[in-house]
Records
---
Amino acid sequence: MSEFYRIAVDGFSSCGKSTLARQIAEVLGAVYIDSGAMYRAATLLALQNKCIINNQLDTGCFRPVIQHATIEFNAGNNHLLLNEQDVETEIRSPEVADHVSEVATHGFVREILVQMQRSYSEKASVVMDGRDIGTHVFPDAEVKIFLTAEPRIRAERRFQELRENSVDISFDEVFENVKKRDEKDQNRRVAPLRKADDAVEINNSYLSRNEQLDKALEIIYEKIGDLS
Ligand code: DC
C-alpha cells in the first residue's frame, strides 16, 4: 500500500454520498473531495463565459477557459474555489443543476478534472465521492463503496436541502431533475455511472446517518484495518 490511501464513494445523485464521504474523512482524518462540486464548478464556469448555447456546450469556447481555470477546496470549510473565488452557493443553483450532465459528458472536461482529482491524492489520503471514482479515477482504490437509495427518497432529500438554502423550486421539478440525471449519468458514453466489480453496495434508503457511517467503517476496517 502506498503512503496515502484512497476511498471511493460512488452512486446516484442525492444519495447522501457527500454526507457519508465527509463523515468518513472526519473519522479517519483524511481529506474529503467532492468531485460533483468540481463538475458543477466547470458548469458554472461555462455559463459565466457564455459557452452553453441552446443547452449544448460550445467546446471551442470552453476548452481554453477550463484549461486555464483553477479548482481547489478551501482547507478550512471545504468550500469550492473556482479561480480563487468561493462559489459554493452558486454551484448548487438549479441553473447549474440543469446543465451539469451536459458539461460532464465531454471527454476533455472529464480529463482535466480527473487529472486534478488524481493530483489531490498524491498529497494526502482522500475520501472522494462521485460517479466514476472507483471505476475510472482510482480503479485501484483501497476501498470502494457504492451508495444507493430509492429515487423518490433522494428527491425528497434534495428538495429539503434546496428549501433550506431558500431555493424556490417544487418537489416535482426536483424529482424530474433527479430522474433525468440518473438516466444521463448511467447512459453517457464517457465514464458512465456503474458499480465497480469490487465495490461494496450500501442502500441507505432507510438508514440513519450514523447507521450508514457504521456500515461504511465496517467495510473500511475490513479492507484496510484501522486507519485513524
Ligand atoms: O454529485 P452531484 O449531484 O453534485 O454531481 C453533479 C453532476 O456531476 C452529476 O450530474 C454527475 C456529474 N458527476 C460526474 O459526472 N462525475 C463525477 N465523478 C461526479 C459528478
---
Amino acid sequence: MKKTSLALAGLLLASTLSAKEFISIGTGGMTGTYYPVGGAICRLANKDPQIKCSVQSTGGSIYNVNNVLKKELNFGFVQSDVVYDKYNGVGKFKDMGDKNLRAVVSIYPELLAFVVSKASGIASINDLAGKSINVGNPGSGNEMTALTVFNAYGFDAKKLKHHGVLTAQECPHALKDKKIDGYFYMVGHPTANITDAANSMPIDIVNIKGENIDKMLKEFPYFAKGVIPKGTYEGVSHDVESIGVKAVLVTTKDMSDKAVGAVVKAILDNFDEYKTLHPALGAVTKESLVQGLSAPLHPAAEAEFKKHGIIK
Ligand code: GLU
C-alpha cells in the first residue's frame, strides 16, 4: 500500500515537472506592432520544450490589462500610461485600481502618431473642430492617450464632427475612403498599419508638441518626448515630434514563476536574435527592458534580470 502510493506520488511529481505550460499573450490589431512582437516573443519562448506560447489579436491595452487581471489572458501588452493608471487606480481607472498587476518586461517605446490625410489640411490639434477623427476603439490605449492630449490642449472632443471608434486596423481604409480625416495610434514604429496608409495615399503625421504638452509631461510621469524620424513613412518628410510611453508586458502576481521566468529568459538568452525580429526593437537595450515599467516586477522576472546582471 505504502509502496504504491509512493510510486504514484513519484509519477505525479514527474508528470508535473514535465508538463508543458500553455501561455497566452494578448496583443493588438494584426497590422500593429504588439501582434508581430508578441509572436516573436512566443517563438523564442517556445524554444523551451516546457512552454507552449500563443498570441491573441485583441483591441489593445485596456482590453489586455482587464483580461489579464480577470485571468482570461496570462500575459498582455499594455501601454505604460495604462499600467500606471490601472495599478494605482487613477485616471480612467479611478476606484478600479488593481495591485495584483505585475510587470514582466518593458518592450519598446511607443510614440503617438496622429495620422491625417494630406487633403484634410490638419496641421495641429488646434485644427480639429468639425473634423472626423478616429480617436480609437474602446479597448485600446490609443483612445485613452488621445483624450489625455485633447485635455492638455483644452480641446473638447464634442467639437469633432465625428468621433470614430474604429479599430486601428480599419483606419487606413477609412482614411483612404475619406470616411475619416485622421486617426490616433500609439504604436512602436515603423508599423505596418501606417506604412499601408502612407503607401496608398498622401498622408502626414501631425506634431504633438508645445507649451500644453510640456505641461502635460510635468503632470504625468510616464510620458516622454520622442521623434518619428523623417522618411520612416512614405511622404512624411519631416521629423515628427510627439510624445510616447513604453509598451510593457504585464501579468498578475499569481502567474507561475516557470512561465514568467521562461518568457524573460527567452528574450535575454536570444537577445541579438530578438532585436532583429521587428524594426521597432532596433533601439532596445538590455537596460531598457526594465525602464518605464509603471508596476512592480513579477518576482520571477526580477530573479531573471538579476541573474543576467541587469538589476542588482
Ligand atoms: N498601443 C496600442 C493600444 O493599446 C496598440 C499598439 C499595437 O497594437 O501595436 O491600444
